[in-house]
Amino acid sequence: MNTGTWMYSNWNERCSTTCGIGFEYRSIFCEKSGALNEVCDTSTSPDISKVCSFGKLCEKADWFISPWGECSGSCFNLTKSRQVLCIQNNLITDIENCNISKKPSNILNCTLDDVDYCKPNWHYSDWSEVS
Hints:
2 domains, TSP-1 type 1 repeat, flat, three-stranded antiparallel sheet
C-alpha cells in the first residue's frame, strides 16, 4: 500500500505565553497526490506543538482546571467535579495568589439525562393467567 507524505509548515515562532513555559505551533498536512487510497501513517505524524519559554518567571498566578469527571450520586443529587488549582511558574501555589473572585467552579449539578441509570425505564409485572 502506498502511503502519503507528511508536509509541515515552519514553527509559528509565537509562544503561547509571555512568561514561563508555553507552546508554539505549526500546521501539518498529508500529501496524497498519487493513488486515491494513499493515507499517511499517523504513527509517524510530525509534532504540531513544541515547548517554548521566555526564560522569565511569571509574576501572576492563574487558575487551571481539569476536565469534568463523571456524574455521581443518587438520582436526586447528581454532581460532577473537577480539580481547580492555582498555578504560578508551573507550580501549584496558594489560592491567595490567584484572583479568588475569578475562581472557576469545581462542582456542577448533573441532570437525570446525564446518567443512564437515572433515565426513565419500563417496569413490568409477570403475565397474568388467562381466565
